[in-house]
């Protein structure tokens, strides 16, 4: 899939989010656990102010388990409820009902004091493309799925999925846009395969991955390809080409092919679980509250 974002797309996505968010009590924000900073559009803080917030570190199965904990703490400290999930196989889903209840406790109490009893909490899912929104909705709501249909005058054509007596979920997720103005963000999203950046060559991605893995996860390359992690990144790519038999006609190493193998191995988890960034990496990002504008 190729997501090309133009100002027009961004304006439309923002308008839809603004419309939908008015209807809900809780925003379930999906992040990619491998790049929680880069897959997050901080505009959600402004769009979702006064709403209960649940952050899901999705694709936690592909991310570094220790770093998942660090990121979860980071978002808890910001006042969000947090869970690590693997929407593809359903791991981590059980706790979500309870987290929704906790996140909306204040609102439920307020309703009770006003004599409103048993009004279900309304929630929506939001996140950038490819973060796993559809997979999550299917996995979370799939079985319980009882669509409430349109409620004229109240929901104006919106479809709600009734999860149980207490929770209704908007069936279309809110689409957020990545922070393209930050080049490092674009690069990391390309590395995990979340966006296809035509400007980035596969070899460029591969060299970034090699440098990153040597620094942050030493010995992974050795384990996967049986190569010594010595020399320059470019030399490592040649070694991978040799180890995987990627040769051009004249016997020269086919670096493009080796790069494609490496990128694919990283994205699919065959190089082990990795997280590409930590909360402190973003500490000097002055624009954090102003991304995507
Ligand atoms: P979106 O609605 O936010 O755009 O994302 P979507 O659900 O389409 O998911 C994007 C890709 O991420 C899908 O893979 C999906 O299977 C995968 N995915 C979603 N959640 C998880 C997760 O928790 N763990 C892992 N490992 N993968 C997840 P795909 O390659 O596009 O499709 P497919 O291979 O599943 O057919």
- As a percent range, the share of strand residues is 5-15%
N-C termini distance: 24 Å
Which sequence of SSEs, written as H and E, runs from N to C? HEHEHEHHEHEEEEHHHHH
Give the radius of gyration.
21 Å
- Each distinct ligand: guanosine-5',3'-tetraphosphate
What name goes with the CATH superfamily of the largest domain? P-loop containing nucleotide triphosphate hydrolases
Number of discrete helical segments: 11
Describe the biggest sheet?
Answer: 8 strands, mixed
Q: Ranges with pLDDT <50 over ≥5 residues?
A: 150-155, 286-293
Could you say what the CATH architecture of the largest domain is? 3-Layer(aba) Sandwich
| pLDDT averaged over residues | 88
Number of strands: 8
- Count of domain modules: 2
* CATH C-level class of the largest domain: Alpha Beta
> Would you give the CATH topology of the largest domain?
Rossmann fold
Please state the overall shape, judged from the principal axes of the Cα atoms.
elongated
The chain-level structural class is alpha/beta
Q: What percentage of residues falls in helices of 4 or more residues?
A: 25-40%
């Amino acid at each position: 899939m190729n997501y090309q974002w133009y100002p027009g797309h961004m304006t439309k996505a923002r308008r839809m989010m603004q419309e939908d968010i008015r209807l809900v009590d809780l925003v379930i924000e999906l992040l990619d656990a491998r790049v929680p900073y880069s897959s997050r559009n901080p505009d959600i803080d402004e769009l979702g102010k006064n709403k209960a917030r649940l952050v899901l570190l999705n694709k936690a199965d592909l991310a570094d388990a220790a770093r998942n904990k660090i990121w979860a703490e980071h978002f808890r400290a910001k006042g969000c409820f947090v869970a690590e999930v693997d929407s593809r196989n359903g791991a981590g889903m059980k706790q979500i009902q309870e987290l929704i209840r906790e996140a909306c406790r204040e609102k439920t109490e307020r309703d009770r004091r006003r004599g409103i009893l048993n009004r279900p909490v309304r929630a929506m899912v939001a996140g950038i493309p490819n973060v796993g929104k559809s997979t999550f909705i299917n996995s979370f709501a799939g079985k319980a799925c009882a669509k409430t249909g349109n409620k004229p005058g109240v929901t104006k054509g919106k479809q709600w999925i009734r999860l149980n007596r207490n929770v209704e979920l908007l069936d279309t997720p809110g689409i957020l846009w990545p922070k393209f103005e930050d080049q490092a963000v674009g690069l990391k999203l390309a590395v995990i395969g979340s966006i296809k950046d035509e400007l980035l060559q596969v070899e460029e991605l591969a060299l970034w991955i090699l440098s990153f893995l040597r620094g942050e996860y030493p010995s992974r390359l050795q384990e996967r390809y049986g190569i010594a992690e010595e020399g320059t990144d470019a030399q490592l790519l040649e070694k991978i080409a040799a180890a995987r038999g990627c040769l051009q006609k004249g016997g020269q190493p086919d670096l493009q092919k080796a790069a494609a193998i490496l990128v694919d191995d990283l994205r699919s988890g065959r190089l082990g679980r990795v997280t590409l960034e930590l909360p402190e990496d973003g500490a000097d990002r002055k624009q954090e509250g102003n991304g995507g504008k």
